[in-house]
Amino acid sequence: MIKIDVNLKYLTDNYNIGSQQLKAYRGKSIKEIMELEAKNGNTKAASFLLNLLSNPKELVNIFRLMNPENRYEIIKNMNFTDKMKLISMLEPEEMLMGLKFFQKDKLIDLLKDTKKEKLFAVAMQKYDLKDFLNTIPEKEQNKFFENKNVEPAHILKGVKNLEKDQLARMVENVTGESQQEKSKEELMTMLSEMKVDTLKNSVKSLEKEEKAFVMENMIKEDPKLLGELDKEAFMAPLELLEKDELLEAMDILEPDDMLPMMSELPEDLMAVTATQLAPEKLAEMLTNEFSSILEQITMNI
After folding, report:
1. Do 63 and 72 touch, CB atoms closer than 8 A?
2. pTM for the structure as a whole
3. Distance CA 140, CA 136 (A)
4. Is-contact 275 43, C-beta < 8 A?
5. Cβ neighbours of residue 168 under 8 Å, at least 6 residues apart?
6. Model confidence pLDDT, tens digit, residues 194-221
C-alpha cells in the first residue's frame, strides 16, 4: 500500500475549501471530502480525481513531490522493471551517484562488460598514454606483440627510437651473439630481416618499461593498434585506482554504459537512485506510464 500525505494547503488554496471547513471534515479521507464538496456544488472539487490522474503538475503539488521522501515512498513500491525505467530517465551524473553504492571490487567487475574503447576512455581520465602502457602487466604487453595483427612494420616503427644499446640487446637476445660493435642503422637492418617470430621474440625480450615505450610509439603511429590489447590490459590500470578516483574517471561513460550496472543494485538502492528524478518527470511518468501505481496512491488519500 502506498500512502502519501496530501498537501492540504494546496487543497484549501485551489479547491475552494477553507481551512475551517476542512477541519469540519476531520476523520474523513480526501476522496470523501471531495465527494461531499462536489455534492454541495463545489465544481472544482468535482474535478479533483480527474486532475490527479491526468495532470502531472497537479500531482507535483498535491503529493508534494518536491520532497524526495515522498518520491521515494512511491518509487520503493514499484517493481524492478518500473524502477529501471525511471533510472533510465536520469542524467549521467545522477546515474553516477547510484554507482557510488557499489564497492570498488564490484565496480571493477561491472566494468569488465564494458567495451574496450570505453575502458580506455575511462583510464585516460587518470593516466596519460605513457603511464597507461607502463601500468599494463608484462604478460599483456607480450600478448600484444604476439598478436597476428601486430605486424613487423609496426614493430620496426616502434623500436626505431630506442637507443643503440637497446637495439643491440634485442638482437643479442635472439642470436646469442654480441652486437656492440654494430651501428644503429646496421641493427635496424638486422631486425628488419628477421623472421616474424624472431623479431617478436626480440622485442618481448626488452624490459617492461622499454616495451611500453615501443608500444607507445607504435600506437601513436597507428592508434588502431590499441584495439589489439586484450580487455585485461585495459582493466589493470583501473584496478590500481582508489574507488573515488575510479568513479571520477567513470564520469565519461554514457547512460547506456551505466544503465546495465544500475540493474545490479539492490532494489532499495535502485529506489534511492531513482528518487533523484526531477519531480516533474516522475509526475509525467506516473500519469502516462504508471497509471496502476497512481491508482494505488489515490486509493489511499
Report:
1. no
2. 0.81
3. 7
4. no
5. 178, 179, 180, 182, 187
6. 999 999 999 999 999 999 999 999 999 9
